[in-house]
Design a protein that fits this description.
The complex is a heterodimer of chains A (about 450) and B (about 400). Chain A is an all-alpha fold. Chain A contains 20 helices and no strands. Chain A is globular, with a radius of gyration of 22 Å. Chain B contains 19 helices and four strands. Chain B has helices at about 5-20, 35-45, 55-60, 60-75, 90-115, 125-135, 140-150, 155-170, 170-180, 195-215, 220-240, 245-260, 265-270, 275-290, 300-325, 335, 345-355, 360-390, 405, and strands at about 20, 25, 80, 85. Classes of the chains: A mainly alpha (about 450), B mainly alpha (about 400).
Chain lengths: ~450, ~400
């Protein structure tokens, strides 16, 4: 991740473009020479290729003011199975294992970004925003979804009551945001100010709100969609247990991490890798929520110890790898043929979601008396969408097979649009409001100057 | 044992390794070659305790490939330098000759032995085994030399000579591996000659090294450096693996090219050096777990002869060095036995063969590497210390037995 406005000479861009094109050509040739390959070699190649091309594309799109995340996504889309087919479907699926690590780090960083003082200070605004975003976005998005029924063949067989139930689920899904996109943009821009603070606070806390909301909506919507089902609070009860357990494990993990950083303080990257893979596997086995657990761990380190800055610094070192792989993989996941088929209705639903998000933001800001910058741009960081939405989509597809496949296709299409547009909007807002940092990032040249040759260091 | 537990175990080793190695100096904990981790891997592997099953090991092949690639990448990036200064070209050439001589002697002995103990062996396998064992038995690990020099505070022309030879001898075996891996080529859509495949092995490393140097040489920021380094390495390993070429050779060339072309080579080396030990220990454990002494009936004979040939080869090298270099004369021919320690490179070559050739050929090369490494561990450092003492480069004081002593 780099400073947004560091001017670079033409030659640098030319070299980057040349290298990017060369890599695509070389890999295209390699895939043609060895069409059938060991999938494990494909996965290794995919990660390496996405890292390099994602980094290069992000540097190149910076010229036109686009965020690095857009570059990562674009590299993934181009390399993915639907364009140049350099990365195979299987490799894309395998990369989800690596993404478990990325998500753990992103969640931990998100938690560590939340400071109790900041939450207390903006509690009024957070409360209004949560209320307004939840109700207004849910209702408007759900209503537009129901109104778009003629454009959605998979809704045709549903009764009006069932349609209302599905629309309710769609509305609840629309409330979800993307912590990874928010943190990715903040990591690139190093922004600080009311927009950055209010967005990160809202997006991270909304994760919990949306989990509860989705569970509650499922309780109500299930009997509406399936008349044989009865109203049951079992899922809410289970969610309550899960949330409590995740918070408990996260707090314990956070305290242990804080103690480790204080006492040992070395090799944090290795510790993160072990936690990202090991603990995530354990939490999945126990059916707890890894995202919430790691978020609470980060929050605990930040607010119950003095090790927060060191935790954030260590996680930031992984940013150049974690965000690139995560978003480039997301790009490779984008199903372009499906998007080509559904884009009109997907665009309509995305527009409704963005519009209702803007409206909710204005209402909440006015009620809370937020600063002008938040009133104007507060909505911009809430457009990106991923993660939790896709998780809920899988549950809908499994529980309601009659319309699950169509619902899934629509979710994938809208998430793709939101994921592409959201980061651009958020970065634009941070740049326009002057919250993006303008100082240069430390360069390798500066390290070279500081790094005395080992001979002199050892003599 | 499930894959996740194995992964946790490897990460734990990696974690321990990070504490055993700081910057450019080796601490006084553990054996210089890391041979104990090879033994540990063998003990927990399928041959002894069976805690690591073959199927689980197979699941970790990508990690093994990447670990080997990373090790050789670091070796390449720091190739031809010792304690921050470049090894003189003449010494590098001497190092190549010495390694080539030992490798040819070991490989040649195995080549001559094979028809006697394995009459039905295919010619291609004979070449592979002889070549692989020769490549694995050629080097002197720089860790052992550094370990002895640092632990006993050795200083003088002989220590310098041995250090420079050990730092420069990696090139020959890795180029040989690149050639041997093309003997049984992959099924490619476009037929490529063996020479062409060797060219691709080296060319991919050079190309990606140049790419990394171009990217890091411009105005890239520190935060992006890791992305570029990991990216080019994975890409190199992935492409080489896809074409069934030698990933260790490609990665070495990648590191060497980056080091030659990047204006920030010192910074890159400073970033990479601390990662070597944390990657090495899990790789050695995996190598140990892959060892299969029962893979072929002729394996013990090959291993024994390879070991004998290596001892003879290094002794002759010691004799030669003591004749050619005046400063080495007091050390005498025993100096050659001080060059016996093998380590990461030998085991990497062995594991690379075992991963690529999943039959007796790969198993024999890996088993030979392991025995050569273990034997070198027992004989090498003691002989080197003795030779340096005879050369008057080690004082009579007790060695620095602790990490602190070595670091001081």
């Amino acid at each position: 991740m780099s400073a947004p406005s560091a001017p670079k000479e033409f030659l640098t861009r030319a070299v980057q473009l040349f290298v990017l094109v060369s890599l695509f050509v070389v890999l295209l040739a390699a895939t043609r020479v060895v069409p059938v390959l060991d999938s494990r070699a494909g996965t290794i190649t995919a990660i390496g290729f996405l890292l390099i091309t994602g980094t290069l594309t992000s540097e190149l799109v910076e010229v036109v003011g686009l965020p690095h995340l857009s570059g990562y996504l674009l590299a993934g889309v181009l390399a993915g199975p639907h364009v140049f087919h350099i990365i195979e479907h299987k490799a894309v699926e395998d990369l989800s294992t690596v993404n478990a690590l990325a998500l753990a780090l992103i969640a931990m960083e998100g938690g560590a970004q939340l400071r109790v003082e900041a939450i207390q200070k903006g509690l009024r605004g957070l409360g209004y925003a949560t209320l307004a975003q939840t109700t207004i976005v849910l209702l408007i998005s759900g209503a537009v979804f129901a109104a778009a029924r003629p454009l959605l063949p998979f809704l045709a067989p549903l009764s009006p009551l069932a349609l209302a139930g599905v629309a309710l689920i769609w509305g609840a899904l629309s409330v979800s945001r993307s912590p990874s996109a928010t943190l990715g943009i903040l990591s690139q821009t190093r922004a600080s100010g009311p927009i950055a603070q209010s967005t990160v606070t809202f997006v991270m806390s909304s994760n919990v709100v949306v989990a509860v909301l989705v569970a509650a909506v499922f309780v109500v919507a299930r009997p509406m969609i399936d008349p044989s089902a009865s109203l049951s609070l079992r899922e809410v009860k289970r969610l309550g247990y899960d949330l409590l357990a995740s918070v408990a494990i996260g707090t314990t993990l956070g305290l242990v991490l804080a103690a480790y950083i204080r006492v040992v303080g070395k090799q944090l990257i290795l510790v993160f890798v072990a936690l990202g893979f090991g603990l995530t596997a354990m939490l999945h086995y126990l059916r707890f929520d890894p995202l919430l657990t790691f978020m609470v761990a980060g929050f605990t380190v930040q607010n119950l110890s003095r090790q927060g800055p060191r935790l954030l610094e260590s996680i930031a070192h992984t940013g150049s790898v974690v965000y690139v792989v995560f978003f480039a993989t997301a790009g490779a996941h984008v199903d372009l043929p499906l998007l080509r088929e559904l884009w009109p209705v997907a665009l309509l639903l995305c527009g409704a979601r963005a519009g209702s998000t803007w409206l909710a933001s204005r209402v909440a800001s006015r009620a809370a008396g937020d600063p002008p910058a938040v009133r104007t741009w507060g909505w911009s960081g809430l457009v990106a969408q991923a993660g939790l939405t896709l998780g809920v989509m899988t549950v809908v597809e499994r529980d309601f097979p009659s319309f699950g496949a169509g619902f899934r296709a629509l979710v994938l299409s809208t998430v793709a649009i939101n994921e592409l547009a959201g980061p651009v909007l958020f970065k634009l807002a941070l740049d326009r409001s002057g919250e993006s940092a303008t100082g240069p990032h430390p360069s390798l040249s500066s390290l070279s100057e500081r790094c005395a040759p080992p001979s002199s260091a050892e003599s | 044992m499930s894959a996740i537990w194995v992964l946790m175990g490897l990460l734990l080793l990696s974690y321990l390794g990070s504490f055993l190695f700081g910057s450019h100096r080796i601490r006084g904990i553990g054996l210089p070659s890391g041979a104990e981790y090879v033994v540990l891997g063998y003990v927990v592997g399928p041959d002894v305790l069976g805690m690591l099953e073959r199927t689980t090991l197979h699941d970790f092949d990508p990690i093994a490939h990447v670990a080997l690639g990373w090790l050789m990448f670091v070796v390449g990036a720091t190739y031809g330098t010792t304690r921050g200064r470049r090894v003189p070209g003449r010494r590098l050439v001497v190092g190549w000759i010495v390694t080539l001589f030992t490798g040819v002697l070991v490989g040649g002995a195995v080549w001559l032995l094979l028809p006697l103990v394995a009459a039905s062996l295919r010619p291609v396998d004979r070449v592979l085994i002889a070549g692989g064992v020769g490549a694995a038995g050629a080097e002197t690990t720089r860790y052992a030399v550094r370990w002895v020099v640092e632990r006993h505070h050795a200083a003088g022309p002989v220590s310098e000579l041995i250090g420079e030879l050990a730092e420069g001898d990696d090139l020959v075996p890795l180029l040989a591996v690149a050639a041997f891996f093309t003997i049984r080529p992959a099924d490619l859509v476009v037929p490529v000659s063996q020479a062409g495949l060797v060219g691709i092995t080296i060319g991919v490393g050079v190309l990606l090294g140049a790419v990394a140097a171009a990217l890091l040489g411009r105005t890239f920021r520190i935060a992006e450096t890791w992305g570029v380094l990991i990216g080019v390495l994975l890409l190199a390993v992935g492409i080489a693996e896809r074409l069934e070429l030698a990933t260790v050779s490609t990665s070495f060339v990648l590191g060497a090219t980056l080091s030659r072309l990047c204006p920030h080579r010192d910074a890159v080396a400073a970033i990479l050096a601390p990662t070597e030990r944390p990657v090495m220990l899990p790789a050695l454990l995996l190598a140990g777990a892959h060892i299969d002494f029962g893979a072929a009936p002729y394996l013990p004979a090959v291993v024994a002869l390879a070991l004998a040939a290596r001892v003879a080869g290094k002794a002759l090298v010691g004799l030669g060095l003591s004749r050619v270099f005046r400063a080495a004369r007091p050390a005498g021919p025993r100096l050659g036995l001080g060059l016996l320690p093998a380590g990461a490179l030998s085991m990497s070559v062995g594991l690379a063969f075992a991963l690529r050739f999943r039959d007796a050929a790969g198993a024999v090369v890996l088993a030979s590497s392991a025995v050569i490494t273990l034997f070198g561990e027992f004989v090498g450092p003691v002989s080197l210390r003795s030779a340096l003492a005879r050369a008057g480069e080690i004082s009579d004081e007790a060695p620095a037995s602790s990490a602190r002593g070595a670091e001081a």
